[in-house]
Design brief:
Length: about 190
């Protein structure tokens, strides 16, 4: 059945599929499997956002090396150099933080809560930072950065969607606080 257009996104045709009968199978998951799946999903979102940000940064780098204003390349202008640095800081901070996330929960923490907390914290910090960096990249392009010609505006829209996909920043903060301060988590 067709669904109404949410949030005024007129270009999207949304359809929902609903089963006519009960599903033929069901899956039971352990707490460890749930935390592992959620961690993998959130890590995937951060990795996608990082890749998209790197693509936008490359477009900006290509642009500032050829664009001339006032008799010099725009990368030589302090404001543009500052914007490029802001994007680079976002990329490096996210890549570094991603490398610091433990790769597995291990036998010493069978529920994987510590790993999940690290991933929640990563997404909570990284996505807003990457959005800010891509916004700086868009500004490097000037007015054309807001047009579809450069593709940077699309990356920013994608990052803003990734930022709330899987949980809004407020929900992530609440989940992280619950894990850190619950008796079950014992993460302090």
């Amino acid at each position: 059945e067709s669904d109404a257009q949410p949030h005024g996104l007129d270009g999207l045709q949304l359809v929902s599929w609903r089963p006519c009968r009960a599903p033929l199978w069901s899956v039971s998951l352990t707490a460890h499997q749930v935390t592992s799946l959620l961690s993998a999903f959130l890590l995937g979102l951060v990795a996608i956002a990082l890749g998209a940000s790197e693509r936008a940064a490359q477009r900006a780098t290509d642009y500032v090396t050829v664009r001339v204003q006032g008799g010099r390349r725009i990368i030589q202008h302090d404001a543009v150099a500052l914007l490029m640095m802001e994007q680079e800081v976002a990329l490096q901070a996210t890549a570094s933080r991603l490398a610091d996330v433990p790769r597995s929960s291990g036998a010493e923490n069978p529920a994987g809560l510590e790993h999940l907390a690290a991933v929640l914290g990563l997404k909570l910090e990284a996505l807003p930072l990457l959005c800010k960096g891509v916004n700086a990249t868009m500004q490097v392009h000037g007015g054309s950065g807001y047009m579809r010609d450069t593709g940077v505006e699309n990356v920013l829209r994608d990052l803003n969607c990734l930022r709330v996909l899987g949980s809004t920043p407020d929900e992530l903060a609440l989940m992280l606080a619950t894990l850190k301060f619950s008796d079950a988590g014992q993460l302090e």
